[in-house]
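Researcher: Re-running this chain for the archive, since the previous output was lost when a drive failed. Same request as before.
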Amino acid sequence: MPDTNAMRFATDASDIAGALPLYVIERSAVDAWCQTLDTAAAAWVKASGFTGALGASLLVPGANGTPIFAVVGFGDASARIRGRFHLAAAAQSLPEGTYRLTGGLPEGCSDTLEHEALGWLLAGYRFDRYATQKSRGASLVAPEGLDAARIEAIAEAEALTRDLINTPASDMGPADLEAACVTLAARFDADITVITGADLLEKNFPMIHAVGRAAEHAPRLIDMRWGTAGPKLTLVGKGVCFDTGGLNLKPGASMGLMKKDMGGAATVLGLAQMIMAQKMPLQLRVLIPAVENAVAGNAFRPGDILASRKGLSVEINNTDAEGRLVLGDALTYGAEETPDLMISMATLTGAARVAVGPDLAPYFTDDAQIANALDAAAQAVADPVWRLPFWAPYESDLEPGIADLDNAPSGGFGGAITAALFLRRFAGDTARYTHFDIYGWNPKAKPARPKGGVGMGARAILAALPDMLDL
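Model: Regenerated structure tokens:
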């Protein structure tokens, strides 16, 4: 489990008592605010060149040189709309100490205190499994009126997702991912079962077995359950712990980040932790097909036709389109219990990245209630999503003629859509189904989101669940 000590609000009584006041000032309000200060403090602010620019920070000393308060800039609306977690940007630059937000956020700004406080905590994340990382020394007293425990639980779950993605495949293979699930299940008294290796064939998960059979570490299907009452929610996460591309081998440049190809599994585990920590009144099931797509003499081949749990035959035109195969069997299994909502999350297609870039989490649904709930929640919690269509006219592209389905239609157009349509064939008509095609990686450092693994869409889903499931 991740070390989240740096991702909590200040709790030491002496630190809280001695916390420095922290003011958040918009650019347009700096002059007026300075007029409320004593002469020496106002002179220091002006002499330091503090303009209220977004992310700027300043310590203001008293007569003896000891800091008496801090101020951070909040820019203006046009600057803030170009990013998120603006308070976290200042938190990165403030020196070691404990700070107490004074006066809240500027009146009338659209940012919420809750997600700015969360951003402060997320800015404390460090991936230090292999090398010591410089810790951030700026701590925040939990702002009044907020559910501090809930915010900390969300930050801790996001840290779990980031740690799982950031860990290389040498230490995060299928067995290691299973171990992470077992640890999480034990913490929240959830039940867990795992089907491994040849048992996948015996129990009718042929596509999961086919994708993972060439790897040294056996493929498996992880099944975690929590809760005994309320609507049924099933989360399915792609757990391809490393993807070479199989016999359609990826070039080196494309293979370098493939430790993150289990980002869907990591994200649903983070979301599951949020749900269980908040004791949401629902029945949760998490399904993770955990495999490595490796190269060996027994690897599945281009041109092979695979059986599936659904009974559909699948022609393999590209072994690098393996995620939809393992998800297909898992989705079929999940749909057999007719959940009230089934959500899959996967680092599935490069087409999704081309369409919306690395920040947005594109999703597919045919349900207007789900879409409205997700869009509203995403905006409220600063976890952006973007709806893409299950475009039915592309269904014929999935049908190769000699099998029921094609795992990689030729032509390259609408790749994220055809992949989502492929998955929908296995989710069937027995469940309300939503699919997220996420990236799971932050290519460059941003406030509260260092370069590396990152959760996408989980907080939006969490916030939308009461509306999606009528909780």
